[in-house]
Amino acid sequence: MDTDPATPADSDERPDDPGSDRSLEDAYDALLDRCRRWNAVSSASGVLSWDQQVMMPEGGTPARSKQLSALSSLEHDLLTAEETGDLLEEIDERSGDHAADRSDDRGETLSAEQAAVVREIRRPYERADAVPRDLVEEISEASSEALSVWERARADDDFDAFAPHLERLVELKREYAEHVDPDRDPYAVLFEAYEPCLPIERAEAILEELRGTLVPLIDAIRESDVDLAVDTFEGTFPEERQEDLAREALDLLGYDFERGRLDVSAHPFTAGNQFDCRITTRFDESDPLSAVGSTIHEFGHARYTHGLPREHFGTPLGDSRDLSVHESQSRLFENHVGRSRAFWERFLPTFREHFPDASDATVEDAYEAVNQVHPDNRIRVEADELTYHLHVLVRFEIERDLVRGDLDVADVPERWNEGYEEYLGIRPENDAEGCLQDVHWSHGNFGYFPTYSLGSVMAAQLYAAAEAEIDAGEGPDLDARVAAGDFEALHEWLHENVHRHGARYETDELVRRATGEPLSAAAFTDYVESKYGELYDVSP
Amino acid sequence: MDTDPATPADSDERPDDPGSDRSLEDAYDALLDRCRRWNAVSSASGVLSWDQQVMMPEGGTPARSKQLSALSSLEHDLLTAEETGDLLEEIDERSGDHAADRSDDRGETLSAEQAAVVREIRRPYERADAVPRDLVEEISEASSEALSVWERARADDDFDAFAPHLERLVELKREYAEHVDPDRDPYAVLFEAYEPCLPIERAEAILEELRGTLVPLIDAIRESDVDLAVDTFEGTFPEERQEDLAREALDLLGYDFERGRLDVSAHPFTAGNQFDCRITTRFDESDPLSAVGSTIHEFGHARYTHGLPREHFGTPLGDSRDLSVHESQSRLFENHVGRSRAFWERFLPTFREHFPDASDATVEDAYEAVNQVHPDNRIRVEADELTYHLHVLVRFEIERDLVRGDLDVADVPERWNEGYEEYLGIRPENDAEGCLQDVHWSHGNFGYFPTYSLGSVMAAQLYAAAEAEIDAGEGPDLDARVAAGDFEALHEWLHENVHRHGARYETDELVRRATGEPLSAAAFTDYVESKYGELYDVSP
């Protein structure tokens, strides 16, 4: 950010410049107005992206690309406009440490909430302002090229074809990080695009802890004689009935269809805002539990979004905290609710209504089926609750070392295969099901993967705290409520402690206020060791 | 438009200002770039509107309004930016009559096509530039208020509740017209928003001619003993089968589903661009012919949009001519194809496949059923091919007189009822089914209604010309082709003569090039007198 205060000469040229007559409150309101504008554009882009993935006919791509790129450039212009910087500067001067030094200090201050809003606006402004527009466009073009090369390379199992594009993206992203802060670890800077409020060292320590817990636990499971495969959930389960079942699950959990929709897309996702947040899912006719799990996962995202304060739409108080917090909400419902015995006590009769062939399935059957661990699976998006994090760990280590310059692109396949060997005891058969399996790097999204695991860790910590508080209160305990299909207390706890705050608190502060502790892997470790220890008859 | 040429001082402040080094070609390219940007925003808004009417859950309105209003204001900013005016000025000076007077004239000229593009960009720029932004926002707020009052007023049959809002909108729109041109008939100025290339006098003369033809023809039909009601098409026709049938009709006509979709909405409409143009329809279980007709109508719109040159997306050469030309394409298919014997020769077997109860229907039955005239119908959107235009005529006369100050809002209901009495021999039972039936005036859209009739008139003229040319060529005549389900020659003719030109020619020029004559009601008169004379056994 340009830290020079606006000069009078500058001011004369801007019709809406306040001069010195504007109060701090007015400057704050003006900043908020601008923020609402770029967020309206950003949420409009979100509608276009949803449409592109769910509704758009194939031929629509050329027009859609132009629409999205025009909106993205307008959003960038609104965010980085000189006026944004001037307002931030003005607010900073009047309310911050500078104020005391100024002769015209009026003793104005921002409330803690307003200060949080300014902090959350300043962060993306400074980042966008620091990076030259040409570089942003170069990255966007390079990724769009890389994406189509990656699609072919994966189909042809041809890493060499993708390698130069990956190399280029690593270079461009390093350059990007250098513009943001030349003195810091570039991977840390890139990670902050997705997780701005959690230092990379904290994230790395949590991932280390996960590895320490999960590698031996999964080893033990591999050695265990227990087999959780359940025949009842194998066969053919027609798509329409699966969709009906997914809707039943959403109704049971309390998804608000008046502010959302359920559709089908190639990759399940959730998109929208507090007024209109939509879920997608997909169906595999041979695996009815997969769509249930994925729908419940997306429900968690949507419930968070629906719970953001409506009156703050378009401002940080009405926006979600970052990726790990969002993922915590989806993982909480997917794993702690949807993979619990209690949930299946309530939901199995519904499942059997839709699939009478499964009429002899027991709650224990369902519980075992949704909690099977597959250490031999090589594909992240098909991974179970435990091995998932080792898939993430391999990717995290590779992308971190690439960005830090400690790994050559040419060595990625071997490093990938070694990582799988080391953590999961398997090797991919080829690069298509190895280091070419995920789309993220072809978007240049280095630093994204860790947020998946951080979200699971946070989910365990939040669920434990919710459970403790609900169980200590009056009425049935949380497990009994879930078994009765009563999610009210859980929703209330999440709303009170997470959703209603928007981006008011930084991540650790949010978690600390909700659970009494900063984010750590402790609750997750307890949860998986106890659950899977029992299921597979192994001790940690 | 500000007609002062850019001063050097102005130029210094704009980083992309050409100074005097920019060639005419460069200035033209820069203008086109800007135009593509505002059109990308405008077409993005189109996606949001489609979504709102087809997909959006009810709760989404507050966010959607903010998104649409942000985009509309950005589009306006891009269109009216100083740079747009400067570029138009620069191009005008270098290529126009001014050029000869300038010492630095480089003898550059625009091609006829480029000149057309500049003309089509200048027109909306000058209009937007002439009207103060505050007034635009005032109109937008007043209409949004009027819209919700109108909804209640119609439900309650309470014109008095709506009257002050209508009054306000008339005033604001008169003010708008005054800004655009204080010396001209304000209704003519408003009409130009929808139909910029056809003088209101021409439009009015055509509407007069329609009245002269249709009032006696409908009188004669009312007196005729012929009854075209066909029992076969009465009963219950399930919605899903109607949808299958609508898709069959679209397939038969050649709708490109890879660049479009068919969905259901409260009011059928078509929206999109040459890469992605979508149709909606609606189903009435008691009337299967209505959805067929409405789907064919929308097909005509979509076929036009799909036929616009892809390489010119976002510029006038890739955009459609105005409302009457668009409506000519929908009416051509709805009336001249979909209401013909030939079409039903091909389509009736398909209809009977989907509705076996209608298996004894003959082509003549279908032809009569789709061409019934209902002089006692009071609702425009339910009107037949003939009475439709008298509904339009009543509205046209009222809105014209309101805007010109020749009619008071308080007198609208009486004037409406008199108009219906005079033209159709009926009186609405109340204002809800009278002057409150249409949404247009609550949007402040004065000048829109005539384009519906102009479109039908143009459709008849274009179809007659296409038929003459195809019939004069080799192979079967057009009627035989339609009966065989072969629309290739018709599509080619329309593409060659209408679609591929985008907004290259002004309306009359387009029609003249296509048909050899400027737009007139002659072909329409011939068509309806011959067709309905035969059907109802009446002579004009």
From TrEMBL, chains A, B:
Q: What is the protein's name according to its record?
A: Carboxypeptidase M32
Q: Where is the composition biased (Basic and acidic residues)?
A: 16-26
Residues the record marks as active site: 298 (proton donor/acceptor)
Could you give the cofactor binding note from the entry?
Binds 1 zinc ion per subunit.
Q: Which Gene3D superfamilies match?
A: 1.10.1370.30
**Organism ancestry:** Archaea, Methanobacteriati, Methanobacteriota, Stenosarchaea group, Halobacteria
Q: Where on the tree of life does the source sit, at the highest rank? A: Archaea
Enzyme class label:
hydrolase
> Known PANTHER family for this protein?
CARBOXYPEPTIDASE 1, METAL-DEPENDENT CARBOXYPEPTIDASE
Ligand binding (Zn(2+)): 297, 301, 327
Cofactor needs = Zn(2+)
Quote the EC number. 3.4.17.19
Q: Which residues form the signal peptide?
A: none
Region Disordered: list its residue ranges: 1-26
Q: Which UniProt keywords apply?
A: Carboxypeptidase, Hydrolase, Metal-binding, Protease, Zinc
* MF term (GO), any: carboxypeptidase activity
Pfam families named in the record: Peptidase_M32 (PF02074)
